[in-house]
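Review the following:
>
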Amino acid sequence: MTKVVSFWGKGGVGKTTCAASVAVKLASRGFHTLLISSDPTPSLSDILEISHCPSITKVQSTPLYVLELSEDNVVGMWKQKYGEEVYQVISAFLPVDKSIIDYIAGAPGIADEFCLSYIMELQKQEVYDYIVWDTAPAGGTLKLLKLEEQFYKHLTEAAKLYLSIKTVLRKIRRKEEANPLKILDSWKRLAEDTLAMLSSSLFKAHIVAIPEWLSVAQTERLVNELLAFKVNIGKVVVNQVVLDVPDHLGKKIIHQKYLSMLKEKLSFLDIITVPLQTYEIRGMDNLLAFSEHLVDKLEL
């Protein structure tokens, strides 16, 4: 079974670096690994020092594959997969034309939500040993997904009655159309399955933070939100920590303060400390070196 290893956190804390280094390390051990970024401005290719990867791309002769999901290509994939179904459902209730597909495709959260279901489909295909996912901030996506699942579950009886009457009239006219209730039911199952993936033993959400006040506050909120959706949380990675650097004694004291605060607030989670590096974390060799601070501690 394919394992999904994901990295969550606010911007600028090192999610992409952590994800890329773990994926490179797993591939170096012979695991077929797909590294995905759903950040609106992905930088995986920059860190790996390869060309932009808008589609799944193999990295040299390694078992590492990379995909950078920009919002544009995610929206395009969503329209190709669900556009016609969306039109069939909405047109069953309202007199609309197919321009409604473009309107809904641009709705906030659609791209992020599709990323979740897309990763679930990749996991089910079992082509890779690991999928390593560099996430965009996705708390709002989880709320949207839960709201959608509840909406499908509680579709009003009035709507069902309306569609039933339309079905009878359509049969009288002998005009066959897609059944929107069946489509809605399939969407409900998809939302339920996606939420179930997030809480399964094959999915891990590791939280990346830095030892600063804003990151501590946002990390605590993110953890609580993930727990509310029963996401399987792994470890908290506190990145860029100043340890024994004499020239940064003041920064070290500040970092220890916020590291202690994180340990107190999130005492129920394992916290990994990653020291501030003296080299630029770019390229396969440096990513492999950086991975030594993470891979074994994450218990992949």
